[in-house]
């Protein structure tokens, strides 16, 4: 799931989760009409149960090690389970009245769980609440309440194959800073059966260009759909022009499931991806030399997308006090830097930024973009709309951008009214 990082629900998974949640509400399972935000936390003793949606063994082992270290320090045991289907298992837990005490929560899930009272609004009780990046706190704010602590995050940047770059006669002076420059180098890099630029055909990649054009999927308050704005049309027109020039192809058109494999297999000299690709390159394509640079500036300025999850605490948990202490431990700068080393994420706290950049200077562009990053819409129902949008984007080369965006606009508007 690192390739998307948002862990967006499919339409089917959304239906399952929604059905379970509605069933729970109608059966008097203890859900309230809104997020639980009482400053008084339950202080039951005993084992804390944690449910995560891991990207792989490295992440699972790192979380287990961190939980064990906190247990040794606090004397409170923690059981960490890697879910086979996090969304469904949490929905079942809420419905039964026995959810995990602490669990991964994506932006796609947060609003629904906050709305029906499943999620404890504990953010403002964190001792390190002011250390989190404001854009991340915004992603986990519901009705003005800071719901949960962002556990880490990722942004999109431009990956460049340095051998291909040199072979095309390009130097550091040619690193693209604008859309026009990106189009120029993409054309120069298209040679020997290799395309200059690739990316996955999904909003979670192309959305960076929308941000650079001044666009977004919704307004800031997520009360109005803005999918078919002039800015978003301009962004897709630009991508389509690259396709028409033959200097850019989607990973699916290159026979690969995501841009990372197309880049690693040298079917493309550049790709737009997140920092999770660095781990994949080390593990799967260790002989490929590359560098990471910031996304080029668009007509409206710099822009990229950010992806994050938070540490949710169940409102039904009888061990909220210890759960909060565990979350505070997991989000310290020291622990987040250990997570970064283990599975490649960026710390969600500002106090870890300098050391992270010092340890990973080659990846600094990811963190340098945080001020211009847009988060994923969080309103219930928007995840399914984005998933459908992704399906439509695969045919962008043969579709009118305005027509495509008009269809998604209607779906997004309907989702925001729910």
Task: Map the helices and strands.
Blueprint: H1 11-26, E1 48-52, H2 57-74, E2 78-82, H3 86-96, E3 102-106, H4 107-115, H5 134-139, E4 141-142, E5 145-146, E6 149-161, H6 162-167, H7 179-189, E7 195-199, H8 203-212, H9 230-244, E8 248-250, H10 259-264, E9 268-274, H11 276-284, E10 290-293, E11 304-313, H12 320-330, H13 333-343, H14 353-359, H15 364-368, E12 373-374, H16 382-393, H17 401-417
Parallel strand pairs: 1-2, 1-3, 7-8, 7-9, 11-12
Antiparallel strand pairs: 3-11, 4-5, 6-9, 6-10, 6-11
Helix pairs in contact: 1-3, 2-13, 8-9, 16-17
What does this structure look like?
The chain contains 17 helices and 12 strands. The chain is an alpha/beta fold. It has 2 domains: 11-154 and 308-374, 3-Layer(aba) Sandwich (D-Maltodextrin-Binding Protein, domain 2); 155-305 and 378-417, D-Maltodextrin-Binding Protein, domain 2 (3-Layer(aba) Sandwich). The strands form 2 sheets. Strands 1, 2, 3, 6, 7, 8, 9, 10, 11 and 12 form a 10-stranded mixed β-sheet that branches. It has a two-stranded antiparallel ribbon with strand order 4-5.
């Amino acid at each position: 799931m690192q390739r998307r990082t948002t862990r967006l629900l499919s339409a089917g998974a959304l239906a399952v989760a929604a059905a379970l949640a509605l069933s729970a509400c109608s059966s008097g399972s203890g859900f309230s009409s809104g997020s639980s935000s009482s400053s008084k936390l339950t202080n039951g003793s005993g084992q804390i149960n944690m449910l995560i949606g891991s990207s792989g063994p490295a992440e699972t082992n790192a979380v287990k090690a961190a939980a064990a270290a906190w247990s040794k320090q606090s004397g409170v045991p923690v059981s960490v389970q890697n879910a086979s289907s996090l969304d469904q298992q949490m929905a079942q837990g809420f419905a039964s009245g026995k959810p995990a005490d602490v669990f991964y929560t994506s932006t796609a899930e947060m609003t629904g769980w906050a709305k029906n009272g499943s999620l404890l609004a504990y953010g403002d009780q964190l001792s390190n609440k002011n250390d989190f990046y404001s854009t991340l706190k915004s992603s986990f704010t519901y009705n003005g309440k800071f719901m949960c602590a962002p556990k880490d995050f990722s942004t999109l940047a431009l990956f460049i194959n340095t051998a291909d770059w040199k072979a095309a006669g390009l130097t550091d002076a040619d690193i693209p800073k604008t859309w026009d420059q990106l189009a120029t180098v993409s054309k120069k890099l298209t040679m020997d059966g290799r395309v200059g630029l690739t990316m996955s055909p999904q909003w979670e990649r192309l959305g960076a260009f929308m941000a650079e054009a001044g666009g977004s999927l919704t307004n800031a308050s997520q009360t109005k759909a803005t999918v078919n704005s002039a800015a978003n049309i301009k962004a897709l027109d630009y991508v389509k022009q690259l396709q028409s020039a033959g200097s850019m192809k989607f990973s699916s058109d290159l026979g690969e499931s995501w841009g990372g494999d197309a880049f690693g297999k040298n079917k493309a000299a550049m790709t737009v991806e997140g920092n999770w690709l660095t781990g994949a390159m080390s593990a799967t394509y260790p002989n490929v030399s590359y560098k990471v640079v910031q996304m080029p500036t668009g007509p409206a300025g710099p822009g990229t997308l950010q992806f994050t999850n938070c540490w949710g605490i169940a409102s039904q948990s009888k061990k909220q006090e210890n759960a909060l202490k565990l979350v505070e431990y997991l989000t310290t700068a020291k622990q987040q830097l250990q997570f970064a080393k283990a599975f490649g994420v960026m710390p969600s706290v500002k106090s870890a930024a300098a050391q992270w950049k010092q340890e990973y200077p080659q990846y600094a562009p990811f963190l340098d973009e945080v001020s211009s990053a847009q988060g994923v819409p969080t309103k219930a129902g928007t995840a399914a709309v984005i998933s459908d949008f992704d399906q439509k984007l695969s045919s962008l080369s043969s579709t009118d951008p305005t027509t495509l965006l008009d269809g998604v606009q209607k779906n997004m508007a309907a989702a925001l009214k729910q």
